């Protein structure tokens, strides 16, 4: 059962909060559980680095500097950090911390959700408050700001990534029996994030599910990367305000017969000199098994294909190929795993259609992976199989540190948190000099698949 802690500066405010919210909280309490310790780590957002165009299919995803723009017309949400709602939240957080550090975030949430009857009425359409109570932590952006901007894409995407984090974390906790440590962080340049990490569990050696919502001005290096992909960016006085947000996860199981999984879904906005905005989405989900299992591969890819097919028949085949190309360890001549889907710079046919596609992909995270986990939960394994897992993890590390755009961008971006950027790395790995699997073994079969990607559906 969830515990809702009301923390306020005086008894009058506390009584008001209780009177406004007790009826609603009773209905929601049975479905809500917040475990939010202090501190935070965060996983970097992958910045787009390639353009994609599918000719002859009627599908086109390519940024030219004008597509995907939306009129601005609103002040930056970061400026609302000093609003009355934020001040009240901060005061309540201090009281909660002094009472019990473990209840810090519960107290903060209680303060953020107390609102007037008029505000509650205005929120009925979007259900922002009820949705926030289901998250692993209060969202990065103040709840009052989310309510005021609930129709805007920035708000809708933040709500989606928070829900994806909560859904996946709770599914993993159920199978593992452990709990995630929930950390919050703030970026002095603007924004922050929420990281959920579980280490040394019964099933998962390391599991991380991170959300970040950051804003500020693009660095010259980031702007140069985007222009190199054909984006026409015209800043004001040399500045390009941006907002980037996403959810990212990497799961490293203990059992070598349970695959590693990774997913990332993100949204990016850049405001230009005349106030118009360029926007695009990116993301994907991919599987890295230690031993090949054709049934698992079919289930994983077919789940992703069904989600893609709801939006366009060319999405899955093209994004599957893109995934195989992206997660490729060039100096080894092998892919990192058996792929999945990967896409970037999606800014057409419309913002609404692309968002709905990303939402469908995010909703596959649990059904494409958890059945595979349960299937192999009690599989026995040998010391030799564990050693092979360690070798394959070494290759995972090599890709992330040498090629992954998100890691490289994060390490070079001011204000990034190194601890969270390296969250994707396993607790343990192994590098054997000139390691080659014995011909005819399951390990050799796995290597054949990695060197020659297959069609699974």
From TrEMBL:
Entry annotated with the keyword Hydrolase: no
Gene from which this protein is expressed: cpox
Organism per entry: Betta splendens
GO process terms (BP): protoporphyrinogen IX biosynthetic process
Reactions catalysed, as given in the entry: coproporphyrinogen III + O2 + 2 H(+) = protoporphyrinogen IX + 2 CO2 + 2 H2O
Keyword annotations: Heme biosynthesis, Membrane, Oxidoreductase, Porphyrin biosynthesis, Transmembrane, Transmembrane helix
Subunit-level organization: Homodimer.
Pathway where it operates: Porphyrin-containing compound metabolism; protoporphyrin-IX biosynthesis; protoporphyrinogen-IX from coproporphyrinogen-III (O2 route): step 1/1
Family per record: Belongs to the aerobic coproporphyrinogen-III oxidase family.
Protein name: Oxygen-dependent coproporphyrinogen-III oxidase, mitochondrial
Membrane spanning residue stretches: 79-99
């Amino acid at each position: 059962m969830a515990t809702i802690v009301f923390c306020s500066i005086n008894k009058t405010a506390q009584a008001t909060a209780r009177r406004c919210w007790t009826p609603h909280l009773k209905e929601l309490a049975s479905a809500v559980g917040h475990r939010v310790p202090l501190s935070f780590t965060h996983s970097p957002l992958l910045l787009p680095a390639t353009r994609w165009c599918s000719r002859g299919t009627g599908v086109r995803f390519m940024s030219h500097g004008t597509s995907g723009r939306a009129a601005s017309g609103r002040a930056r949400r970061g400026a609302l950090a000093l609003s009355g709602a934020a001040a009240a939240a901060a005061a309540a957080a201090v009281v909660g911390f002094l009472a019990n550090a473990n209840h810090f975030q519960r107290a903060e949430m209680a303060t953020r959700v107390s609102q007037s009857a008029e505000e509650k009425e205005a929120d009925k359409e979007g259900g922002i408050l009820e949705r926030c109570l289901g998250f692993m932590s209060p969202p990065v952006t103040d709840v009052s700001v989310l309510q005021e901007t609930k129709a805007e894409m920035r708000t809708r995407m933040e709500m989606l990534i928070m829900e994806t984090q909560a859904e996946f974390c709770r599914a993993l906790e159920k199978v593992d029996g452990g709990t995630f440590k929930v950390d919050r962080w703030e970026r002095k340049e603007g924004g922050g994030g929420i990281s959920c990490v579980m280490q040394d569990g019964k099933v998962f050696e390391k599991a991380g599910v991170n959300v970040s919502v950051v804003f500020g001005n693009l660095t010259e290096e980031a702007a140069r990367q985007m222009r190199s992909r054909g984006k026409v960016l015209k800043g004001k006085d040399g500045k390009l305000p941006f907002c980037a947000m996403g959810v990212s996860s990497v799961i490293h199981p203990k059992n070598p017969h349970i695959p590693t999984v990774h997913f990332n879904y993100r949204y990016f906005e850049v405001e230009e000199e005349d106030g118009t905005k360029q926007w695009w989405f990116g993301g994907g989900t991919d599987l890295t098994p230690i031993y090949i299992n054709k049934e698992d591969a079919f289930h994983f890819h077919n789940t992703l294909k069904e989600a893609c097919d709801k939006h366009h028949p060319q999405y899955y085949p093209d994004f599957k190929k893109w995934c195989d190309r992206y997660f490729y360890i060039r100096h080894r001549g092998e892919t990192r795993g058996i792929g999945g889907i990967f896409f970037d710079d999606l800014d057409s046919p419309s913002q609404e259609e692309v968002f709905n596609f990303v939402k469908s992909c995010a909703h596959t995270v649990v059904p494409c992976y958890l059945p595979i986990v349960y299937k192999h939960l009690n599989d026995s394994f040998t010391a030799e199989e564990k050693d092979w897992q360690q070798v394959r993890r070494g290759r995972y590390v090599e890709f992330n540190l040498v090629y992954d755009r998100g890691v490289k961008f994060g390490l070079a971006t001011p204000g990034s948190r190194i601890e969270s950027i390296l969250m994707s790395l396993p607790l343990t790995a192994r590098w054997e000099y000139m390691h080659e699997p014995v011909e005819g073994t399951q390990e050799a079969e796995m290597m054949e698949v990695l060197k020659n990607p297959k069609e699974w559906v």
